[in-house]
């Protein structure tokens, strides 16, 4: 029954959590705040019109570390909850008023940029309670108005529509109104020296809030906003539900973006120049795009429907918000770039989930066994969830699927829902029972693992095909899966066989000799595939027209690793679709022979897509050959090359450990690029080199005052130098830094070091950190260090042995390759 809980996600003391219920309804909230930018403080009056569900109901508000200055009724405050007791009867309506002051440690952030201060809030999951008393549960929805007083000439934005801006001496008062009922975590404010640009998208007012330090390049990030809005409105069958959509760019944001209704806040990291997006061509460059903000724009916009209009009633059901936003992001890719790009995004999402599954834990997408709400915002909720929705779409067909989405959104608009509500709508529109699907993919951990093999018998002129379900204990024991197989015969015949897999094992006979068999050619089913195909067959399948068949062929060839497989993979570097080329490059990197390296370098100039080139460069980092290092060095200093490719070259060059790399990487610390990716690549490359001079440089970048992107990279990279005194000292300090990203980098460094001496510092994070993501990661690292200590010497010995075996295997493959060639 392990599949009902998963593995390593819930710690022993974890208890089930349930949505909160309230004895009162909130009719409306009115908030009046004055923001003190210089002192990082806020003072306010919040009024709630509330209605009693029963006589004597207590109005319970969440309010952490707030100074209560006065309340309209009898109250009790314990530092976390404010209980207000009006004398009232069931059905009666009263207004309760709280005057308060706060200097928030989280939830409301103040960032200085030169002479300016930027303030932004982040409510999700449960952080608004640090700066305003409110019933902080997603299943409560109410309309609100917010008036914000700021010094001139600051701009203050919030959700909804602007009612007015008043002057009050040397201050400005902005009055915003959110007329639709919304969950409290979606309430947001931002204050700063913003330039505000506006345009119309149909009836909707689009706004862009840009910090004064951002120039005209902001347009590269946002030029598609209206197209994305029109696409989502049309696909979902529900027009964009609000009057306005603002995208607000702020410094030091602690996420990529946050979907506050009509007022999305985004990191300034999303701003980039033309070269970051289109390194080799004019703008736009859909076919050859490198970095792009559009996935982020699409993701946050998708939340305006899934998350804001219809909201998960508790964090356990966060799939309603995050799986949909991630899936709709992929649908925008399909609309703007085509089917293969969409499928490859889903394929990549599955691989990202697999990374979390194999390195961290497994859990059912829907689980109420968690402690920190932020914990469930993981690769299961986002990426795996998006693949599950893609599978549902494939199973029901696009038309029925869309009808389900429209019905769901219309039926539950402005309400809080759970995954059962979703199931019932899909059952209704499809006229099918879907419990089997929900049980396997929403309520169970893991995923199917299919081992597929076939043999041809000359004697019988028939092939025996065998499919086995080999998933582990933390996955559903026997999945029921509709599955298609594409069979291409030697004599040119082709057929697609549809079957239902509902046993551990299934086998059948084909008459004639297959050239190859491709499992699930349309990539409709979420699964891990273990293809055991004959070499010739995998080589032939590389030519198939279906993307997923070619990706499958690459996986089979990677496992094979023979010179013939290397030749075939080298050919796949020139595939029409860059995703196949990338996978082939990664595969060649893993094979790692001299032959494979030569093929990678040879193909580089003819590979057009920057992301495929990045994969080639990354693959070259797996080898210590001089010719690879020299090649990487040239790419690193080529100013016409993509920033991201050059950053990868810096990292890879460090990994080759050639002595000239140090000089080269030091020079790369002077190149500027989007998000300083080249400098960061150079820091990581230096850490790979591991020299004393490299350590000196990386330590310098880990110091206070260095821009966050560089500092966090340096802190994390320090782990590569091992648990030396000066390294541990910096990591220890970074674990207490006030910048979230620096602390997170320090936890990541601790994960790599698994150093017992860091245990007290990590334990302090578990107890004290204000950010739930850090508390969770620190806990995982502590568990891993303890386990590593238990295994002790045994662990170290095994690690060294594996490393030695890997090196020997590579040498052996090299020798085989040379023999073949001569
Ligand atoms: Zn999201």
UniProtKB/TrEMBL annotation:
Q: What PANTHER family does the database record attribute to this sequence?
A: PROTEASE M1 ZINC METALLOPROTEASE (PTHR11533), PUROMYCIN-SENSITIVE AMINOPEPTIDASE-RELATED (PTHR11533:SF174)
Sorted UniProt keywords: Aminopeptidase, Coiled coil, Hydrolase, Metal-binding, Metalloprotease, Protease, Zinc
Q: Name the protein family.
A: Belongs to the peptidase M1 family.
Question: Where would I find the Aminopeptidase N-like N-terminal domain in this sequence?
Answer: 19-186
Q: Which InterPro entries match?
A: Aminopeptidase_N-like_N (IPR045357), Aminopeptidase_N-like_N_sf (IPR042097), ARM-like (IPR011989), ARM-type_fold (IPR016024), PBS_lyase_HEAT (IPR004155), Peptidase_M1 (IPR001930), Peptidase_M1_aminopeptidases (IPR050344), Peptidase_M1_dom (IPR014782)
Recorded source organism is: Pyrobaculum calidifontis (strain DSM 21063 / JCM 11548 / VA1)
Does the record's keyword annotation contain Glycoprotein?
Answer: no
What GO molecular function annotations does the UniProt record carry, in alphabetical order?
Answer: metalloaminopeptidase activity; peptide binding; zinc ion binding
A Gene Ontology biological process noted in the UniProt record is: peptide catabolic process
Needed cofactors, names only, are:
Zn(2+)
Cleavable signal peptide: none
Ranges for domain Peptidase M1 membrane alanine aminopeptidase come to 222-441
Top-level taxon of the source organism: Archaea
* GO CC terms, sorted: cytoplasm; extracellular space; membrane
The name on file for this protein is Peptidase M1, membrane alanine aminopeptidase
Coiled coil where? Answer: 785-822
Question: What Pfam families does its record include?
Answer: HEAT_2, Peptidase_M1, Peptidase_M1_N
């Amino acid at each position: 029954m392990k599949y009902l809980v998963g593995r390593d996600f819930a710690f022993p003391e974890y208890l089930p959590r349930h949505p909160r219920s309230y004895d009162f309804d909130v009719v409306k909230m009115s908030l009046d705040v004055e923001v003190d930018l210089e002192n990082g403080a806020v003072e306010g009056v919040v009024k709630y019109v509330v209605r009693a569900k029963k006589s004597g109901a207590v109005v319970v508000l969440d309010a952490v570390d707030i100074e209560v200055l006065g309340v309209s009724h009898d109250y009790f405050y314990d530092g976390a909850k404010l209980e207000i007791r009006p004398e009232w009867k069931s059905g009666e309506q009263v207004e309760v008023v709280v005057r308060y002051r706060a200097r928030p440690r989280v939830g409301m952030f103040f960032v200085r940029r030169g002479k300016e201060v930027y303030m932004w809030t982040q409510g999700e999951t449960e952080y608004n309670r640090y700066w305003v008393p409110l019933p902080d549960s997603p299943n409560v929805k109410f309309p609100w108005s917010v008036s914000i007083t700021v010094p001139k000439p600051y701009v203050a934005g919030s959700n909804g529509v602007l009612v007015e801006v008043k002057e009050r001496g040397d201050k400005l008062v902005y009055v915003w109104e959110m007329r639709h009922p919304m969950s409290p975590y979606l309430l947001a404010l931002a204050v700063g020296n913003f330039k505000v640009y506006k345009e119309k998208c149909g009836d909707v007012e689009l706004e862009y809030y840009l910090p004064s330090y951002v120039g005209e390049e902001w347009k590269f990030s946002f030029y598609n906003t209206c197209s994305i809005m029109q696409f989502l409105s049309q696909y979902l069958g529900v027009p964009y539900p609000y009057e306005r959509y603002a995208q607000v760019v702020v410094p030091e944001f602690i996420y990529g973006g946050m979907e506050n209704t009509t007022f999305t806040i985004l990191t300034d990291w999303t701003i980039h120049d033309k070269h970051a997006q289109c390194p080799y061509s004019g703008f736009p460059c859909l076919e050859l795009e490198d970095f792009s903000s559009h996935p982020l724009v699409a993701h946050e916009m998708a939340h305006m429907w899934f998350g804001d209009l219809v909201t998960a009633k508790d964090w356990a059901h966060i799939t309603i918000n995050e799986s949909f936003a991630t899936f709709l992001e992929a649908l925008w890719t399909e609309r703007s770039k085509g089917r293969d790009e969409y499928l490859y995004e889903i394929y990549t999402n599955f691989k990202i989930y697999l990374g979390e599954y194999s390195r961290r834990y497994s859990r059912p997408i829907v689980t109420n066994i968690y402690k920190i709400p932020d914990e469930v915002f993981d690769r299961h909720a986002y990426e795996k969830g998006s693949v599950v929705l893609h599978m549902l779409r494939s199973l029901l067909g696009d038309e029925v699927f869309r009808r389900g989405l429209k019905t769901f959104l219309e039926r539950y608009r402005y309400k809080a829902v759970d995954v059962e509500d979703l199931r019932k709508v899909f059952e209704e529109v499809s006229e099918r029972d879907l419990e089997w699907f929900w049980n396997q993919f929403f309520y169970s951990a893991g995923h199917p693992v299919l081992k597929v093999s076939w043999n041809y018998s000359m004697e019988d002129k028939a092939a025996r095909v065998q499919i086995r379900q080999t998933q582990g204990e933390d996955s559903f024991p026997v999945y029921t899966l509709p599955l298609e197989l594409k069979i291409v015969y030697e004599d040119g015949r082709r057929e697609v066989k549809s079957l239902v897999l509902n046993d551990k094992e299934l086998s059948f006979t084909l008459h004639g000799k297959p050239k190859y068999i491709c499992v699930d050619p349309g990539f409709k089913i979420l699964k891990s595939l273990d293809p055991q195909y004959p070499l010739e067959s995998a080589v032939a399948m590389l030519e198939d027209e279906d993307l997923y068949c070619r990706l499958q062929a690459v996986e089979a060839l990677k496992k094979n690793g023979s010179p013939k497989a290397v030749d075939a993979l080298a050919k796949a570097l020139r595939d029409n679709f860059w995703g196949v080329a990338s996978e082939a490059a990664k595969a060649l990197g893993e094979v790692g022979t001299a032959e494979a390296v030569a093929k990678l370098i040879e193909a580089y100039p003819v590979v057009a897509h920057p992301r495929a080139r990045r994969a080639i460069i990354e693959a070259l980092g797996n080898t210590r050959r001089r010719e690879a290092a020299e090649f990487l060095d040239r790419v690193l200093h080529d100013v016409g090359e993509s920033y991201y490719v050059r950053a990868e070259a810096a990292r890879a060059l460090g990994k080759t450990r050639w002595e000239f790399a140090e000089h080269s990487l030091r020079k790369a610390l002077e190149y500027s690029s989007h998000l300083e990716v080249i400098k960061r690549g150079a820091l990581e490359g230096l850490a790979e080199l591991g020299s004393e001079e490299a350590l000196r440089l990386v330590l310098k970048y880990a110091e206070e005052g260095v821009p966050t992107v560089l500092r966090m990279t340096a802190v994390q990279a320090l782990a590569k130098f091992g648990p030396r005194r000066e390294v541990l000292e910096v990591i220890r300090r970074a674990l207490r830094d006030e910048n979230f990203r620096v602390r997170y980098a320090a936890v990541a460094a601790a994960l790599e070091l698994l150093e017992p001496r860091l245990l007290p510092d990590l334990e302090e994070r578990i107890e004290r950190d204000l950010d739930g993501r850090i508390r969770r990661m620190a806990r995982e690292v502590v568990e891993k260090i303890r386990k590593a200590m238990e295994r002790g010497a045994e662990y170290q010995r095994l690690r060294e042995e594996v490393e030695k075996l890997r090196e020997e295997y590579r040498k052996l493959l090299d020798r085989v390759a040379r023999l073949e060639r001569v």
